[in-house]
Specification:
- By secondary structure, this protein is of the alpha+beta class.
- Helix content is 38%, strand content 23%.
- Strand 3 and strand 4 (175-180) form a beta hairpin.
- Helix 4 packs parallel to helix 6 (98-112).
- The longest helix is centred in the N-terminal third of the chain and has 22 residues, at 2-23.
- 27% of the residues are buried.
């Protein structure tokens, strides 16, 4: 069992490193590409300082928030030009949604000027135009590095609402990414084992719920880890107003089996919100 815990810890550390690399690091070469020969010092400051560790890769702010700040400043200075569009496109890649950019530009209008806001909206509408055709599933996928996966048809009868399953690894410690549409949750169930066993959930995106029988429901947010003991009745799923995804690790044990029980009714679920 100790080896299993050590292996799981290693997996979590690796996943954390992957997440940081994928979401909190950017590399810029525009300075050297455009001005490397003409102004090498400026190119160095642009690529290695502004977009390097000193500013954009300072983890005090997420890349999402770095983009929000930069867009606000450019708008305030009236620089609604190609650089503004580039930062909108970068911000979209960093997770800024259409609702968020609309809210930012609306608030900024009162401080940066109505004409600047109008100009900003014209560009933002073009950058986020393709979102009109994007599904909620596709937009949720942009929030995490793991795939949403395919419809979870094999276990659909044990879920209320639609869920998706993406196998992440089948080696050493097999685990999957499970995604829930808003209000989707699995039935009450038990992971049986005579020794060891149980399950571990690592929340990766959205908001969800976890509850053990006889205990209050626990809200799950990205980065939360839920340890589910063997032989404990429980359920988990998405919040009513949010998609939700977690990695699911099955803990090795002896005589393991899953017992699916009754659904979590709407009446019971609605009391959580």
């Amino acid at each position: 069992m100790k080896k299993t815990i050590t292996a799981l810890t290693a997996v979590l550390m690796a996943l954390n490193n992957i997440s940081i690399m994928a979401q909190n690091k950017i590399t810029q070469t525009a300075g050297r590409n455009v001005l490397g020969e003409f102004a090498p010092k400026f190119a160095e400051l642009n690529d290695d300082v502004l977009f390097g560790e000193a500013v954009w890769n300072d983890s005090t702010l997420s890349l999402h928030d770095h983009s929000m700040v930069t867009i606000s400043i450019l708008l305030g200075k009236g620089l609604v030009d190609s650089s503004f569009r580039s930062h909108l496109e970068m911000g979209k890649k960093h997770g800024i949604t259409r609702k968020e950019i609309a809210a930012l530009l609306t608030q900024a209008a009162f401080y940066a000027g109505w004409p600047n806001a109008w100009a900003g909206f014209r560009v933002a509408k073009e950058v986020w135009a393709e979102d009109d055709a994007a599904t909620e599933k596709e937009r949720f996928q942009q929030q995490m590095i793991f795939p949403v996966g395919e419809p979870n048809t094999a276990y659909a009868k044990y879920f209320t609402g639609n869920s998706y399953l993406a196998p992440i690894s089948k080696e050493q410690i097999p685990f999957n990414n499970v995604t829930f549409e808003p209000r989707c949750r699995n039935n009450w169930h038990i992971h049986h084992a005579t020794k060891g066993g149980g399950q571990m959930l690592v929340c990766v995106a959205g908001r969800g719920w976890y509850q053990e029988e006889g205990k209050p429901a626990v809200r799950m947010l990205p980065g939360d880890v839920i340890h589910i003991p063997a032989n404990v009745k429980h359920w988990h799923g998405a919040a009513a107003d949010s998609w939700f995804a977690h990695l699911a690790f099955e803990i090795p044990g002896e005589n393991t089996s899953n017992e699916w029980l009754e659904p979590v009714t709407d009446e019971y679920y609605n009391k959580l919100e």
